[in-house]
Amino acid sequence: MADDLRIVRAMPTMGTDIHESATLIGKSSSPLENEALELAAWIFNSVGKVFHVTHDYFDAATGMSAFSNALITTAVQVISQRAVTEGVPKDHAIAITSQCIRGMATLMMSGRSPEQLQWSLSAPGSITGQAISRLEESQLSTILESSLSAAMKRAKDYRG
C-alpha cells in the first residue's frame, strides 16, 4: 500500500478563488511520479495556471510568489489611499489601480518584457516617465530586492 503513495509538492496562490492562481508544482525525475504530477496539474489547472518548477528553485519561486502578492496589495493600498486624499472615491481608486496592474500584467504575459514596457512609458516629461524617475531616485529597487530576498529566505527556512 505504501508503494502506491505519491507525494506532489504544490503551492497554489490566493487567486484560486477566481481561477487565477499561479500554482507551483515540483518536478520529479522519477517515472513513477509522472501520473501523480499529471493529476496534480489537472487539478490545479482548474483554478489557474500551473508552473512546473524544479526542487532546486521551488522555495525561491514560493518566496517570489508570496512577495508579489505582498507588493501588489501594499502598492494598491498606498495608491488608493493617496487617490482618496485627492478626491477619488475609494472603490474607483482600487478598481482603476487594479485594472492598470492587470493590463500591464497581461502585456507581460503576452511576451512584452518589463523593460520594454517601461521604456515605452518613459517619454521625457510624461507623467509615467516622471513617476518612473521618482521610483528610481527613491531607491525602490534596493528596497524591493531586500524584501524579496527576505521572503525567499523565509520560504527556504519554512520548509526546513
UniProtKB/TrEMBL annotation:
It comes from the Eukaryota. Keywords: Oxidoreductase. GO terms for biological process: L-proline biosynthetic process. Residues 57-156 form the Pyrroline-5-carboxylate reductase dimerisation domain. The keyword Transmembrane does not apply. GO terms for molecular function: pyrroline-5-carboxylate reductase activity. InterPro entries: 6-PGluconate_DH-like_C_sf, P5CR_dimer. This is Pyrroline-5-carboxylate reductase dimerisation domain-containing protein. It comes from Penicillium coprophilum.
